[in-house]
Design brief:
The complex is a heterodimer of chains A (about 375) and B (about 325).
Chain A: E1 2-4, H1 12-20, E2 24-25, H2 33-42, H3 49-63, E3 68-72, H4 83-93, E4 99-103, H5 110-121, H6 126-153, H7 162-176, H8 180-195, E5 208-214, H9 216-220, H10 228-234, E6 237-241, H11 245-252, H12 262-270, H13 282-294, E7 299-305, H14 309-325, E8 329-334, H15 341-365
Parallel strand pairs in A: 1-2, 1-3, 3-4, 5-6, 5-7, 7-8
Chain B: E1 2-5, H1 11-24, E2 28-31, H2 37-46, H3 53-65, E3 72-74, E4 77-80, H4 89-92, H5 94-101, E5 109-110, E6 113-115, H6 131-134, H7 138-160, H8 165-174, H9 177-184, E7 192-197, H10 200-203, H11 212-218, E8 221-224, H12 231-236, H13 248-261, E9 268-274, H14 278-294, E10 298-303, H15 310-329
Parallel strand pairs in B: 1-2, 1-3, 3-5, 4-6, 7-8, 7-9, 9-10
Helix pairs in contact in B: 1-7, 1-8, 2-3, 7-8, 13-14
The chains are: A alpha/beta (about 375), B alpha/beta (about 325).
C-alpha cells in the first residue's frame, strides 16, 4: 500500500503520522505549473482553485504509483466537502485504480470515521496509534511555533535569505525525527539555529504587521499563493496567518469536549458581520480581521480562490468592516493564472500605503 | 406596513407563501418590477464583481424596492429545508451581504432564519423572531403561516401538474386557471421533449435567460423542469448515492437530471446555469458522466450579465436540430 495525500502547508506532518504507523508514504511533488496544468485539464471549468490543484496532485501521485489517497472531507455547505466524490470519479475515468479514504469530521459520521481510522491503523495496536498521533500532534505544535517565528522575523534578517534557509533546515530536522528523543533534539537544534540568525533592530513604531486571512488552502499552501509570506517579508512586513494546521486539527478533529476555545472566540468576533456559520471559513475570516486589529496589526490581506462561495460573502462585508475598524484590507482572488507581476505590484502598492499612513501618523503626533 | 419582496432567487418557489403570509398579517406586499437592464446595472454596481448574476439581480431588485416607499424588505436567511443539507453559502449569508455590503439597505432589512425538514417552510417558529418588528403576536403568526401554507400547496400542485412556476403563480392568484390553460395550449403536438435543468431563478427569469422558455416553445419543443416533479421522483436516483450534494436545490436538480437521463420519452437535457455558480460546477460534471453513460445528448448553457441573445438562439436551434436528426433519421 502506497499512501499519498493533498499537498498543503507543512506536509511532513501528514507524512510523519503515516510513517510512524508503518505505511509506505509517497509525498506528491510540491504543486508546480505541471500540477496546475494537469488539474485544470481534468477539472470542471468553474471548480474552485484548490479543487484543481489537488486534482493535479492526485494525478501526479497516481502516476508515481500511489494506490491509496487520504484526504479530509468537509462539513457544511462549502464545496470542499464534495471534492472527494468528484476527484474519485475523474480519477476512475482516467483509469487509475486506488483506494480513497475521506476523513469527515467525527461528529458527522462516527461509524465511517472509525472505519477510516481502522484502515489507517492496519495491524498496529491501538496504543501505537495513539502514541503516533500524540507524537505527531506535539510535533505539529512545535513546527507551527517555528513557522510563526519565521513569518514574523523574515522581515528583519540581515543576510538576505538566511531565514528561509533556516526554515528549510528546520523542516528537514523535524522530518528526520521519529522518537521523542529525536524530536527534543530537533527542537533544541532549531532553537539554536534561529537564535544564531543575525537580525536588524527595528524600532517598534516602524514595524509593519500584516495578517493573512481567507480560505484555508490558499492561505496555507505557499506554492499557490505566490509565496505571499515571503513577498511580504521581503517588503519588510511581519506576517501572521489566520490558519495553522494545529488550529485546524484542534477545531475539526477533536471531539467537542476537548476543544480549545481559541477558534470559538474568533467566531464570536465575526458574529456582528456574519451571523451564522455559512460554510468554509467565511466567519473565521471576518473574526480574524477583528482579532488582528485588536492585536495591533496594520493591515490585512484577504486571500480567496476565484468564485469561492463563502469568501464572496466575507468579501461583501469587508469594505464596511474596514471602515468601521479603520484597518486597510486588500482582497486578492487567486486562480490558475500564474502571472505574478500584477499581483506583486498590487501588494507592493498596498504595503506602501500602509507604510505612508504610519509615517504620517508619527509626524502628526510628533 | 409595507413589505417589499425582491422578484429574484426563491421568489419563484416561495412567493405565494410569503405573499399570503404577510397579507394575512394585514401587511401590504410590494414586489419589485420584472427584471430589466436598470435593475441589473444597479445590482452589478453594488455587488462584488465575482459573485453570480442571480445574486447581483437580487441586490438590484432590493435596491429598486427602496423607491417604493416600503417599510421593510423581507430577506429570509435560508439555512436548511432538509436535514443534513443546506443552502448555498450565498443564501445563508444573504441578509449579512445586503445589510453590510449594500449602501442604503441597513435598517431596511427584515429577516428570519428558515429551518425546516421539508420544502414546507410553514413552521411558525421560523417567523417568531420577526413578531416584534412587525408588531404582531405569535398567535397571529401561527394563523398566517397556516393560511400561507394552503396557498403555497395550491401553487405547488399546479406547478407539479406541468405548469411553469410563473403560470402556477398566476393561476393561484387570479383563480382563473382556464385562461392560463388556454394560453398555454400549443398549436401542434410537440416534436421533442427535453429536460430543462436549472434553478427556478435561472429558468423563470426571462430577462436573465433571454426567455429560453419562449424560445423552446417557438421551436415546438416541450420541456420538463425539476419543480414539475414529485419529491419522491427527485429522491429516487440519489438516495443510494454515498454522499449527495450539500445543497437542497442542487440535490433536487441532480435527482431530476439523473432521472430524466433514464426516461425514454426525454430526447435531450439542457442544463441552464449561471457563470461562477459553485454547486453547478460539480453537478454539471456529474451530468457529463451520466450523459457519457446513457448516450442522451446534454448541453449546458451558462448565463451571466451580458445580454446579447443571438448566441443562445443559435445554440438552442442547433441542439434541437441535432435532437431531431437523431430521433427521426436514425
Amino acid at each position: 500500500m502506497k499512501i499519498s495525500f493533498p499537498y498543503m502547508g507543512t506536509v511532513i506532518i501528514y507524512k510523519k503520522v503515516l510513517e510512524l504507523l508503518g505505511h509506505d508514504v509517497l509525498v506528491a511533488p510540491r504543486p508546480s505549473q505541471k500540477t496546475l496544468d494537469l488539474g485544470v485539464k481534468h477539472s470542471p471549468e468553474f471548480a474552485c482553485f484548490p479543487f484543481k490543484t489537488i486534482m493535479g496532485t492526485y494525478i501526479e501521485a497516481c502516476e508515481m504509483g500511489a494506490d491509496t489517497l487520504i484526504t479530509s472531507g468537509g462539513h457544511g455547505p462549502c464545496r470542499a466537502g464534495f471534492y472527494g466524490e468528484i476527484h474519485k470519479r475523474v480519477l476512475k475515468a482516467l483509469g487509475h485504480k486506488f483506494d480513497f479514504i475521506v476523513f469527515d469530521s467525527y461528529a458527522r459520521d462516527k461509524e465511517k470515521f472509525i472505519r477510516n481510522i481502522k484502515k489507517i491503523k492496519g495491524n498496529n495496536s491501538w496504543l501505537k496509534v495513539i502514541k503516533a498521533i500524540r507524537f505527531t500532534y506535539q510535533m505539529l505544535k512545535e513546527i507551527d511555533r517555528f513557522d510563526k517565528w519565521i513569518a514574523k522575523n523574515r522581515a528583519y534578517e540581515q543576510i538576505t535569505g538566511s531565514v528561509n534557509q533556516a526554515w528549510d533546515e528546520i523542516q528537514k530536522m523535524f522530518d528526520l525525527a521519529h522518537t521523542k528523543k529525536e524530536l527534543k533534539e530537533a527542537i533544541i537544534n532549531s532553537e539554536k539555529l534561529i537564535s544564531a540568525i543575525p537580525l536588524k533592530e527595528v524600532q517598534e513604531r516602524n514595524k509593519v504587521r500584516i495578517g493573512i486571512v481567507g480560505e484555508i488552502y490558499v492561505v496555507m499552501e505557499a506554492s499557490i499563493n505566490m509565496e505571499i509570506e515571503k513577498i511580504l517579508g521581503e517588503l519588510g512586513c511581519e506576517v501572521e496567518r489566520s490558519h495553522y494546521l494545529s488550529d485546524w486539527v484542534d477545531h475539526n478533529m477533536l471531539p467537542s469536549f476537548l476543544k480549545r476555545s481559541h477558534e470559538e472566540e474568533i467566531l464570536k468576533k465575526g458574529e456582528p458581520f456574519i451571523e451564522i456559520e455559512i460554510g468554509g471559513h467565511a466567519k473565521q475570516t471576518v473574526g480574524h480581521i477583528v482579532d488582528f486589529k485588536e492585536r495591533g496589526f496594520d493591515g490585512i490581506i484577504h486571500l480567496m480562490p476565484f468564485g469561492c462561495l463563502p469568501e464572496l460573502i466575507s468579501q461583501s462585508v469587508i469594505p464596511k468592516m474596514s471602515a468601521q475598524y479603520e484597518i486597510p484590507v486588500f482582497t486578492l482572488s487567486l486562480d490558475e493564472q500564474t502571472g505574478q507581476a500584477n499581483n506583486k505590484t498590487r501588494i507592493e502598492a498596498f504595503i506602501d500605503l500602509i507604510k505612508n499612513k504610519k509615517l504620517s501618523n508619527h509626524q502628526f503626533s510628533a | 406596513m409595507k413589505i417589499g419582496i425582491p422578484r429574484a432567487l426563491l421568489y419563484y418557489y416561495y412567493f405565494p407563501f410569503w405573499k399570503a403570509f404577510f397579507e394575512a398579517l394585514d401587511m401590504e406586499v410590494v414586489v419589485s418590477e420584472e427584471t430589466n437592464k436598470g435593475i441589473l446595472n444597479k445590482g452589478i454596481k453594488e455587488s462584488v464583481s465575482e459573485i453570480c448574476v442571480p445574486i447581483k439581480l437580487y441586490i438590484g431588485h432590493a435596491i429598486q424596492l427602496l423607491n417604493k416607499e416600503i417599510d421593510y424588505i423581507f430577506v429570509p436567511r435560508m439555512v436548511s429545508i432538509q436535514s443534513g443539507e443546506y443552502f448555498c453559502p450565498k443564501f445563508m449569508g444573504l441578509p449579512d451581504m445586503l445589510r453590510h455590503g449594500v449602501k442604503g439597505l441597513e435598517g431596511k432589512i427584515i429577516t428570519c432564519q428558515i429551518k425546516s425538514d421539508s420544502d414546507d417552510i410553514s413552521a411558525p417558529e421560523n417567523y417568531y423572531p420577526m413578531a416584534e418588528v412587525l408588531g404582531v403576536t405569535k398567535e397571529q403568526i401561527q394563523v398566517a403561516a397556516s393560511v400561507a401554507r394552503e396557498q403555497w400547496i395550491g401553487f405547488r400542485m399546479f406547478n407539479k401538474s406541468g405548469f411553469t412556476a410563473v403560470e402556477a403563480m398566476k393561476m393561484i392568484q387570479t383563480n382563473d386557471s382556464l385562461e392560463v390553460l388556454l394560453n398555454n395550449q400549443q398549436s401542434s403536438k410537440p416534436v421533442l421533449r427535453i429536460g430543462l435543468i436549472g434553478y427556478v431563478y435561472n429558468i423563470y427569469d426571462p430577462f436573465l435567460n433571454m426567455n429560453i422558455i419562449e424560445k423552446l416553445r417557438e421551436l415546438n419543443v416541450d420541456f420538463i423542469t425539476f419543480d414539475m416533479l414529485e419529491e419522491a421522483q427527485l429522491q429516487e436516483k440519489i438516495k443510494d448515492m454515498e454522499k449527495t450534494l450539500f445543497w437542497t436545490f442542487s440535490n433536487k436538480l441532480l435527482g431530476a437530471g439523473l432521472r430524466l437521463f433514464h426516461e425514454p420519452t426525454i430526447d435531450g437535457i439542457i442544463h441552464l446555469t449561471a457563470f461562477g455558480c459553485g454547486p453547478d460546477s460539480f453537478m454539471g460534471k456529474l451530468f457529463e458522466f451520466e450523459s457519457d453513460q446513457t448516450g442522451v445528448p446534454f448541453m449546458s448553457i451558462r448565463v451571466d450579465e451580458h445580454t446579447g441573445e443571438n448566441h443562445l438562439q443559435t445554440r438552442i436551434e442547433a441542439f434541437v436540430d441535432m435532437l431531431k436528426r437523431k430521433k427521426f433519421i436514425a
